[in-house]
């Protein structure tokens, strides 16, 4: 079982025209590579909501490569968020990011709690701060993450207060965002 799991976690998926989604549980840092100015392994344990969104977006066909284009970030952000309403208590997370040439119209958008989203954004921003525009960065997803199906909505609530603020209470088993962590008596109904 362990060797099967190790083989599964080191699986590399080739995505047409968008680089690679590499599942690698052993690497949690940034490194440089020959085809890319940097390869970043995303820490799914530190920012689970944002990283689940990025993984789902890449699996759905979004680019795993970011070509840095800081000058185009404002226009990309406007294009990607056009028509996506704000939601109280959540940030609208974009993948590819606005600072990527690949971002903008057609970017994958998910509602993510501000703490998770802004922490992930700051972490990534610090890693990319010294790179010049035009640098290609490959994003690698840590294999410890449960990867959602492409059509699965990624919803995560930190606690029942967040569920109530989102207007989603009560959550029933199978609802987006339901988890046993929120269902204290394990009866299939959370945050009632």
What would you say about this model in short?
The protein is of the alpha+beta class.
Features:
four-stranded mixed β-sheet; two-stranded antiparallel ribbon; alpha+beta; disordered N terminus; 2 domains; 192 residues; elongated
Report on the structure:
With 192 residues, this protein is α+β, with helices and mostly antiparallel strands. It folds into two domains: 2-154, no CATH class; 157-192, no CATH class. 26% of the residues lie in helices and 19% in strands. The chain has five helices and ten strands, in the order H-E-E-E-E-H-E-H-E-E-H-E-H-E-E. It has helices at residues 2-9, 48-59, 73-81, 114-128, 160-165, and strands at residues 12-14, 20-22, 30-31, 38-42, 65-67, 91-95, 108-112, 136-141, 171-172, 189-190. The strands form four sheets. The chain has a four-stranded mixed β-sheet with strand order 3-4-8-5. A two-stranded antiparallel sheet has the order 1-2. It has a two-stranded antiparallel ribbon with strand order 6-7. A hairpin with a 6-residue loop joins strand 3 and strand 4. The chain is elongated and about 50 Å long.
């Amino acid at each position: 079982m362990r060797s099967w799991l190790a083989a599964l976690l080191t699986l590399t998926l080739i995505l047409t025209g968008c680089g690679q989604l590499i599942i690698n549980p052993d690497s949690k840092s940034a490194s440089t590579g020959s085809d890319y100015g940097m390869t970043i392994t995303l820490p799914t344990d530190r920012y689970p909501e944002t990283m689940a969104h990025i993984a789902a977006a890449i699996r759905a066909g979004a680019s795993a490569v970011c070509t840095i284009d800081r000058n185009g970030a404002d226009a990309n952000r406007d294009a990607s968020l056009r028509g996506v309403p704000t939601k109280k208590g959540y940030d609208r997370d974009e993948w590819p990011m606005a600072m990527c040439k690949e971002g903008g119209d057609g970017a994958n958008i998910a509602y993510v709690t501000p703490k998770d989203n802004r922490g992930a954004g700051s972490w990534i921003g610090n890693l990319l701060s010294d790179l010049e525009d035009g640098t290609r960065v490959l994003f690698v997803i840590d294999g410890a993450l449960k990867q959602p199906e492409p059509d699965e909505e990624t919803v995560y609530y930190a606690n029942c207060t967040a569920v109530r603020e989102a207007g989603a209470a009560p959550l029933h088993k199978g609802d987006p965002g339901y988890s046993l962590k929120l269902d204290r008596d394990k009866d299939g109904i959370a945050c009632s």
